[in-house]
Every structure is written in C-alpha cells, then in structure tokens.
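Assess this one:
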Amino acid sequence: QVQLVESGGGSVQAGGSLRLSCEASRYRYSGYSMAWFRQAPGKEREGVAAIDRVGPTYYADSVKGRFTVSKDNAKNTLYLQMNSLKPEDTAMYYCAASYMRLGSWSATSTYNFWGQGTQVTVSS
C-alpha cells in the first residue's frame, strides 16, 4: 500500500517561510500526479498546489506568487516551499497522490492516497 508522510510544519511569524516535504514509500513519484491540500478548523479541505505527472503545476489564487510546488523523483519526495506566510495560511497541510493526470486538480476526489498531515501555524 502507498504511504505518504509529510514533514516540515511548524510555527512561524507572518512573513516567514517554511518548506514542507512529503516522502512516499512503495511507489515512484514519476508515475503519479501529486498535490498539497490544507484544512483549517471548521473549514473544508482546499487545494493549495499540484504538479501533474507530466509536469504542469497548478496553484490556488490565494498562494500564487508565494508558494512553489516541486518534486524530486530520485528522492521520491514532494515539496511545498511557502514564503511570505500569512495568518490565514494556518492549517493542517496534507499531500495527496493520484494515478491520473490532473483534470480537476483541486478536487479531493481526484486523489487516491493521502498523508496524515503536518500542522502549519502562522502568527501575526
């Protein structure tokens, strides 16, 4: 069974940076589309950024210009570089994997596997 393990979350002040990592076991990233989602208390899980199995990337409007998604196929690791963090970025962040190319990249139903999440807290 595919396993995804996130790391890199923490507490930072507004304007700071964090880099999240998602390491996969038992499959190779090169064959999957990958994404980052987040969920704040009382809110629905929302797509943050995604990278298609053949390369195109997608971002939520709220993070464009501040977040960058990338993957290292050799290390089987997905990254999310988050700069200029805002208090509204506070949430649990999850990585997800899909067998398919990305159509509706921000729909949770697109993805077959999910990690357990890593908490990001941004203080003002």
In short: The mean pLDDT is 93. Residues 41 and 111 are 22 Å apart (CA to CA). The two ends are 40 Å apart (CA to CA). The first strand starts at residue 3 and ends at 7.
